[in-house]
Design a protein that fits this description.
about 240 residues, mainly alpha
Length: about 240
């Protein structure tokens, strides 16, 4: 950490070729242990932009070594917000070795934000893992939703519909709204009788009903306002019936 401080401190003093004053200012605050974690986390919100993606390798090291749970989580979240997929492989490597809960959650959030197909299997594994923190598993489900209708993503989300935790079943339902109706309808329908409460959002059954309605609406929008062949009408009708 001290070498990084010297690097950015020297750049600030000497004009730092290729580095903007704002970048140097933010990094010096982030790397200053005397700054409060709230201040450093706020700095990371500013750094989490594509224009700062060249800093991703430094942030990877910072997130790995950081002792503050808030700052480490926000560090990895900033890497995801930078949208640089060059960070995918290092993040996957860290996910295999790091056990710290906030760091694992941040890494999964970063992988979900990067939307890189190389992360699908890792996100699916996190979603399945009963020993993973609940929030981390839910973040993995949200990340897999972006890949729909990818078979790896759909299979992981479909399996999560039978998870012992209502919150995971709820998260999987929410994620599956982005999948084709014909694929998801038969998987969602059995949960209409799942009345486990998941909090202010309601029950798993209410989410299943909302998911099916979203699928029906998608079918209606795709088939409205344009003439269809007899074959297309039959296919659309079958999709609608499945979602119903």
């Amino acid at each position: 950490m001290s070498s990084l401080v010297e690097r950015f401190g020297g750049a600030a003093a000497n004009g730092g070729p290729g580095r903007g004053a704002e970048e140097r200012r933010l990094m010096l605050i982030l790397l200053d242990p005397t700054q409060g974690e709230a201040v450093r986390a706020k700095v990371l919100l500013e750094l989490g932009r594509p224009c700062f993606s060249s800093l991703a390798p430094i942030l990877l090291k910072t997130g790995e070594s950081e002792s503050s749970g808030l700052v480490s989580w926000q560090t990895f979240a900033a890497i995801g917000a930078m949208r640089s997929r060059r960070a995918t492989r290092p993040l996957l490597n860290l996910l295999r070795t790091i056990k710290d809960v906030p760091k694992r959650h941040g890494i999964v959030a970063a992988l979900a934000a990067l939307y890189d197909r190389r992360a699908r299997t890792a996100l699916a594994r996190v979603l399945r893992d009963q020993f993973e923190q609940l929030a981390t598993r839910i973040t993995a489900a949200d990340g897999l939703a972006l890949f729909a209708p990818d078979p790896v993503a759909v299979a992981a989300l479909a399996a999560a519909l039978e998870d012992r935790l209502p919150r995971i079943r709820f998260a999987a339902l929410r994620a599956l709204t982005l999948c084709p109706a014909a694929l998801v309808g038969p998987l969602v329908s059995p949960l209409l009788n799942d009345f486990a409460v998941v909090g202010p959002e309601g029950t798993v059954a209410s989410c299943a009903e909302a998911t099916l309605e979203s699928l029906r609406e998608t079918v209606r929008k795709r088939t409205a306002g344009r003439p269809l062949s007899a074959k297309s009408r039959r296919a659309a009708r079958r999709r609608f019936e499945v979602a119903s």
